[in-house]
Amino acid sequence: MSNALKGKVALVAGATRGAGRAIARELGAQGAVVYCTGRSVAGRPATGNRPETIEQTAELVTAGGGTGIAVQTDHTVPEQVQRLIQRIAEDQDGRLDILVNDVWGGDELTSWGKPFWEHDLDAGLLMQQRAVHSHIITSHFAAPLMVARKSGVIVEITDGYKPDYRGSLFYDLAKASVIRLALAMSEELRPHGITALAITPGFLRSEAMLDAFGVTEENWRDGIAKDRHFGGSETPHYVGRAVAAVAADPEVAGLAGKTYASWHLMERYGFTDIDGRQPHWENFTAAMHRG
């Protein structure tokens, strides 16, 4: 699949860390120009004490074979998103081939173990603004570039693909909403040759998760002693490779409106995680329950 996206232009909204950073890197590894956006820039972190920045992501994209371009953007502010899309249009002669809506920002806002009437209301509503409204705003301004060219792929990043309750009303609503957004956009964009779909990772071994388990990517298996579910985890690059494979698929229109897990797309395209594994979270958890 090397250079399968050469000449393509991508926007990864929420590319600072985790899945967004890895998606940007994997798109770049296939030759794409990748606009890496988010709020955290050098010297001005926007998420707690996390050190990652969009400049770092853009540098990693370029080092991996693509062209990374960092643009600080708060995707909940329409004016900032509009300026971002105008810049892409000017830079790339009106071209935008791939949009990945990965903005989240809800970890610090979720109170697990509380019913919704005891959950902080302002935090719950802010979560919808960050994780749902931002996706709508970004797609609203980005879609016309794709419509003009009658080509493009929009990917919504979510958590889970089944209608099961996710443990918190506000969290559940945010993750389910972007799945529905992918379906609704696919219906309206299909006549224009544009495909929208949603993708979920499994147990994501993100930078924050590695820190929480007190391990690094090199010795991540040590974390299994704390939680055996960690044995079925995947790096953010796994979902990154899923997105890159979808973006390069000439038959991508057949995926429109649906939600896929990283392991579903692994079975379709045959990619591996960076350690050569092919994690299948659903099979892993099923085997644990049987055992």
UniProtKB/TrEMBL annotation:
Pfam families: adh_short. Gene3D superfamilies: NAD(P)-binding Rossmann-like Domain. Transmembrane segments: none annotated. This is Putative short-chain dehydrogenase.
